[in-house]
Amino acid sequence: xxxxxxxxxxxxxxxxxxxxxxxxxxxxxxxxxxxxxxxxxxxxxxxxxxxxxxxxxxxxxxxxxxxxxxxxxxxxxxxxxxxxxxxxxxxxxxxxxxxxxxxxxxxxxxxxxxxxxxxxxxxxxxxxxxxxxxxxxxxxxxxxxxxxxxxxxxxxxxxxxxxxxxxxxxxxxxxxxxxxxxxxxxxxxxxxxxxxxxxxxxxxxxxxxxxxxxxxxxxxxxxxxxxxxxxxxxx
Length: 235
Fold this sequence. Notes:
The protein is 71% helix and 0% strand. The longest helix is centred in the last third of the chain and has 28 residues, at 174-201. By secondary structure, the chain is mainly alpha-helical.
């Protein structure tokens, strides 16, 4: 992916005005993967084999797949059933092997999170975008720098991930980039703290339900900022 394309994807994510633009991007990539898998890859032999080897998707992505496949009017339940059937057949083989060798270690029957195809797909793309943020910042890209400084910053998990790769990618400019990212993060944590204080203040009896409703999303946004999107992994 070229730097220009990476910039456009990051720009769109920042303009979504989420608490973490990398979470917004990761969510988009995940949804596209699930849709593509259910519509196209369930019948692909090599894709099916990856699922069998991992003993299914990880817990998080198993339920994401199930929710997507169970939408009203969707026929994706058929494809999901085929995948689960293949995994079940492999688990039966594993169980027979364990019994025939008189072994009591059944851990290999658990889902191998490290091999979850959805997790692997997400990790590859997010590594590319994380490095892309650092590379674009190091290139003095004025438009992106302005966008970044005006953004809501990152969740704490993605902030830490980003900081961990800076020294590896641009050791000669690491200090200035770290300061830029840290300044944006601090500004947004201060903003979040003020919004939480306002939320708490409006729980008092003198405020109306309408007053409370106008700030009701702050608790969710604080979780998104501190913990990241549901399913995010700190690698």
